[in-house]
Amino acid sequence: MRGYGFSKFTPNELPKGGFDELLKLFLELLNYTAGDANEALSWMNELDKQHNITTDDYGMGDFIEDLKNKGFLSNDDPKGGFNITAKTEQTIRQSALEEIFGKLKKSGKGNHNAPQSGTGEEKNADRREYQFGDSLDQIDMTASIHNAQINHGIGDFMMTERDLEVEERDFKTLTSTVLMIDISHSMILYGEDRITPAKKVAMALAELIKTKYPKDTLDIVVFGNDAWPITVKDLPYLQVGPYHTNTYAGLELATDILRRRKTHNKQIFMITDGKPTCLKEGLKYYKNSVGLDKKVVNKTLTMAAQCKKLNIPITTFMIARDPYLQQFVRKFTEVNGGRAFYSSLKGLGEYIFEDYIKNRRKTVR
Question: Do 332 and 315 touch, CB atoms closer than 8 A?
Fold first, then answer.
């Protein structure tokens, strides 16, 4: 008789034990509770009841005291609960960076440097003779003295211009990026939480730029019925609202932000799971969630074409598999000259990081 043989399912064990293990779980839960420390701690208490995540020597009360003593929690909630601190917000961003960028490094993907060599910031293995105009800090003095000894002997030391050896450097491009995040209601519909991975990616990308590419800029725009900018500090608390999807407003705001940036490289990353369904006309909203509304679609495509004229490519990360939505994204991408990824939630972070690093090597003029 043919059939399937099933082995016993053994679930992954939850972290158990001391402060560090429980902190990882607490930070992860904060992503799902939109930064609500009280709700995250309530979930941890429930997990402790069901799965015994604490020990007899270290309970939830000890963990909460340590969170306060180490600066992760404050008691300034007017309702009598806890709030997370700036230290916790930064730790969440760092955790997101390690989770996403760590996978990228393990896979060997990504190259941070431009293909051109010249006056730049990162040294590479290439060497050449000194040329007029090279800066003094490019000269490899050890190699130059060695060349002088070989060329002129050790007894009567002499160094000429031809003995000088210069280290080539890779030129690093500067990039201005606007990350657009869809916060329409569909981002939590159909039993799938799509906003939490989007927030994680934004926090990790912000931390990457802050630590590795401090001269690059990252602006974050959220869009529902309207569009507005948020700061990195706002990300842990970001929630989906009862909104339609005004993609046009998001693109318009992102473009206005990038117009003010002085860098050559400008780009928009857009994370969305649906079609544009809304426009604002004066003080009123035009909405249609049924099918692809021609009025809304054409307005959105016009904005995509305007971005192309401004040399602002749009990379769309589409978290949806519906054929008619993918057809719209293909048309949108064609009009803008950008790119589209039909990404699952699982690979979203790696896709965006790989694309960001790749785009840093391009100079749009």
Answer: no
306 in any annotated domain: yes
Pairing between strand 339-342 and 314-318?
A: parallel
Question: 296 and 201, same structural domain?
Answer: yes
Are residue 300 and residue 341 in the same domain, yes or no?
yes
The reported pLDDT for the residue numbered 365 is 39
pLDDT tens for each residue of 187-238:
887 667 888 888 888 888 888 888 888 889 999 999 999 999 999 999 999 9
Sequence-separated (6 or more) residues with CB below 8 Å from residue 85: 71, 72, 73, 74
**3 state DSSP class of 104:** helix
**Cα gap 309→296, rounded to integer Å:** 21
* 2: pLDDT strictly greater than 60: no
Closest to 82 in 3D by CA, of 66, 63, 93, 68: 68
pTM for the complete prediction?
Answer: 0.72
Do 217 and 308 fall within a single domain? Answer: yes
> How many domains, the chain?
3
Closest CA to 348 of 166, 202, 177, 142: 202
Domain co-membership, 298 together with 346: yes
In the chain, which ranges are continuous DSSP H helix? 19-32, 37-51, 60-69, 86-106, 141-152, 195-212, 247-259, 294-309, 323-336, 348-359
Q: In this structure, what token pair is assigned to residue 112?
A: 């941070």
